[in-house]
Amino acid sequence: MPDAYTPRPEHKFTFGLWTVGNRGRDPFGDAVRPTLTPVEAVRMLAEVGAMGVNLHDNDLVPIDATVQERDRIVREFKSACEASGLKVPMATVNLFYDPAFRDGAFTANDPAVRAYAVQKTMRAMDLGAELGAKIFVLWGGREGVETDACRRPDEAIKRFREALNYLCEYSLSENYDYKFALEAKPNEPRADIYFPTTGAYLALIETLDHPEMVGVNPEVAHEQMAGLNMMHSVAQAWEAGKLFHIDLNDQVPGRYDQDLRFGSANLIAAFWLVKFLEDVGYSGPRHFDAHAYRTEDYEGVKDFARGCMRTYLILKEKAAHWNADTEIKSLLAEMANREGNGQMVGRFDKDRAARLLARDFDRASLASKGLQYEKLDQLTVDILLGVR
Question: What is the dihedral of CA 126, 132, 133, 134, to 10 degrees?
Fold first, then answer.
């Protein structure tokens, strides 16, 4: 029976074919679930209440498919999406699995590999546009090194920039209206990845020929595996106008890329992230880039997918509760009053600077007052634990 935590299309929850279709294979063990076809994945996602399905090119079309096979597969997939009411908001390209990309794609030393990577991406853009996608994510999974002896990293940056500029021009020439979203990761599958953080990509974007077309796709696991704060990365991207897409999952810091069910490892961090997205009015897809435990069959995969969405909606409700709590509002009002007491530096001008230089500050007084952050944090915990 539907309840307040049942997903609806307006929640904009999406999953990738590679998420619910993950067969549970890992470096130490083979697959535990049978292959799920793209059409079966679409039907599963419709059953659990998702709004959309996203895909790499080869999640749908095998890399060696003929033109006739490609057209048939796409036709059947589109028909399944239409019958199930699912959209395809985002597409991406797999530039990491095939052995041709063992030294990277856009940054590889071999110019033929670089050219093939751009060609493969253009064809993936064609596929995404055919399915209605307006967001194109780029994760540089092999764009990195095991040894810096292989190339100078500034040369790799130039190669990556050249590829992005080319792809932006291709999108414009075909009237695809894509927004490109760059996805950072600090390591794995290579020892060191170029552009390891969201901030690194934000810096690169401003050097592109069409920076207005390019933003970022922060992922919880990729930030947290390096011990970073996902919400801070998202906030920086949002403030810069560059939060084009987001990947939701969970991760224990310091571990390999786990892609756990959203909110299952660090509930407080997930709460602050959901609260931020809802408070600022982020209107893009809430994409879950995660997969079910290896212990599960496909009924368990459905439980996993439902759990991702349910946790988000519970935390969304908790965020509204937090915002409405009278004691929390009182504490926040006190902080706001402190901020509005005339001490802000403001925009520079010479007279204001002279007054600032002439002012005497009572450091002892500034240091003496407790800020009540402990109380505020415990009130947050009380709300999350359901005792407030």
Answer: 100
Read off the pTM. Answer: 0.96
Tokens representing 282 are: 């982020």
CB within 8 Å of 30: residues ≥ 6 apart: none
> 49: alpha, beta or left, given left = phi > 0 and alpha = psi -120 to 50?
left
> Catalytic amino acids?
56, 59
Dihedral sign for Cα atoms in the order 250, 252, 258, 260: negative
Burial 356-368 (b: 16+ CB within 10 A, else e): eeeeeeeeeeeee
Domain coordinates in residue numbering, the chain: 9-323, 326-384
Calpha distance 139→75 (Å, rounded) = 27
Domain 9-323 has CATH 3.40.50.2000: no
Show pLDDT as tens, one digit a residue, over the chain (388 residues): 678 999 999 999 999 999 999 999 999 999 999 999 999 999 999 999 999 999 999 999 999 999 999 999 999 999 999 999 999 999 999 999 999 999 999 999 999 999 999 999 999 999 999 999 999 999 999 999 999 999 999 999 999 999 999 999 999 999 999 999 999 999 999 999 999 999 999 999 999 999 999 999 999 999 999 999 999 999 999 999 999 999 999 999 999 999 999 999 999 999 999 999 999 999 999 999 999 999 999 999 999 999 999 999 999 999 999 999 999 999 999 888 876 556 678 889 999 999 999 999 999 998 998 999 999 999 999 999 999 9
- The span from the CA of 137 to the CA of 223, in Å, is 17
Total residue length of the chain: 388
